[in-house]
From TrEMBL:
It comes from Paremcibacter congregatus. It is found in: Cell membrane; Membrane. It is a multi-pass membrane protein; Single-pass membrane protein. The chain crosses the membrane at residues 6-26, 75-96. Belongs to the TrbI/VirB10 family. This is Conjugal transfer protein TraG. The keyword Cell membrane applies. The keyword Transmembrane applies. Keywords: Cell membrane, Membrane, Transmembrane, Transmembrane helix. It comes from the Bacteria. InterPro entries: P-loop_NTPase (IPR027417), T4SS-coupling_protein (IPR051539), T4SS_VirB10/TraB/TrbI (IPR005498), T4SS_VirB10/TrbI (IPR042217).
Length: 371
């Protein structure tokens, strides 16, 4: 409930308490005075009991206090008690609203969890990943969600979270332990109920894994090394940028996935293509359409020369005007032909079987083919 809604409800409750106390005092005074006719008109009847409007007590008090002072004193106490109770309710409501003002959610409602919040979230459990400690109790997470911890170096992530988890978590775990501290402190206990393996390529005493054991010795040795992860006849699927600029001699290609011979597909997420020397893009043959440009230029020259020779040494003004108009028209036509052919972009050609490379800039998980 928002503080504004609570304030409206608080005002309603205070008003209701005041009216109810006055009404109770009015009915008490009427009962003690025997519901006499001098008390005035009745508002309504309930089960034979006459009910007056709540504020009649104060009218009777002014008019009849001298006849029954004790009755009106008791009725006044009842009304005053209601007033005091309404003051107490108003103070409690104000204190609550003051506390709520400290948790303004204008810029969001995120906050540190309280003990009640942690308990309601079910994090005070006896198993799961250790997240911390609160009031002497471990906070653990035993759900399917991911857990990520951010903290500076030497801030206690290992001794506060990792090691307590490894000393209480009975499920499988894969630990990236560069210093070997977690192995030394927890491997003994975990070895009592699970199979514990240390893999350190720089330690001759660690467990070993050699992916080249899958290579057959003999005439297939080199081929097996090359194709142990990506076999022959696999296909690279990608797309290229069809926007070719003036003078561009390379095609920009990105690879999107690898399709194995058995139909399995590996997404490689837009890795750039390169040639065998490592330069980005593919380059084989580029046709700049030079011969076509020379042919068009020669044609434009011939048209201009032809019109010049055809109308040379004409004497009359009409003939000279016709000569100039024809020469201008043919000249503009030839220029347009040249301009159009100058705007033809080069054509890049990659022949089938051209060697390419895939520049890998991120981690890719590859399973041995057929595994």
């Amino acid at each position: 409930m928002t503080p504004t809604k609570f304030l409206i409800g608080q005002m309603f409750v205070v008003f209701f308490i005041v009216v109810l106390a006055s009404w109770t005092g009015t009915q008490y005074a009427a009962h003690e005075l025997g519901f006499q006719n001098a008390l005035g008109p009745v508002w309504f009847n309930v089960g034979g009991t006459q009910v007056y409007v709540p504020w009649r007590l104060y009218q009777w008090w002014i008019a009849y206090e001298g006849y029954a002072p004790d009755v009106f004193f008791q009725a006044g106490l009842i009304a005053a008690a209601g007033g005091l109770l309404s003051i107490v309710v108003a103070i409690i409501g104000s204190l609550w609203r003051a506390r709520q003002a400290k948790t303004v959610t204008t810029y969001g409602s995120s906050r540190w969890a309280t003990v009640k919040d942690i308990s309601q979230a079910g994090l005070f459990c006896d198993k799961g990943l250790v997240l911390g400690q609160k009031k002497g109790r471990y906070i653990r997470h035993d759900g399917p969600e991911h857990v990520m911890c951010f903290a500076p170096t030497r801030s206690g992530k290992g001794v506060g979270l990792v090691i307590p988890t490894l000393l209480s978590w009975t499920g499988s775990a894969l630990i990236h332990d560069i210093k070997g501290e977690n192995w030394q402190l927890t491997a003994g206990w975990r070895g009592t109920f699970s199979h514990v393996i240390l893999f350190n390529p720089t330690d001759s005493n660690s467990s070993k894994f050699n992916p080249l054991m899958g290579v057959r010795k003999g005439r297939h040795e080199v081929r097996d090394v090359q194709h142990i992860l990506i076999p022959q006849d696999s296909r690279l699927i990608g797309k290229y940028d069809s926007e070719i600029m003036e003078g561009q001699g390379r095609i920009l290609v990105i690879w999107q996935r690898i399709i194995m011979p058995n139909g399995a597909s590996i997404l490689i997420d837009n890795l750039p293509a390169a040639d065998t020397e490592g330069y980005a893009g593919l380059s084989d043959k580029t046709d700049y359409h030079t011969s076509r440009l020379f042919k068009v230029a020669a044609l434009s020259t011939l048209l201009n020369v032809g019109t010049e020779l055809a109308f040379n040494n004409t004497g009359s003004d009409l003939a000279r005007a016709f000569e100039r108009g024809t020469q201008d028209t043919i000249g503009r036509t030839g220029q347009k032909i040249v301009d159009r052919n100058l705007n033809i972009k080069p054509t890049n050609i990659i022949r089938p079987g051209w060697s390419v490379r895939v520049l890998v800039s991120k981690d890719i998980i590859l399973r041995p083919y057929g595994a």
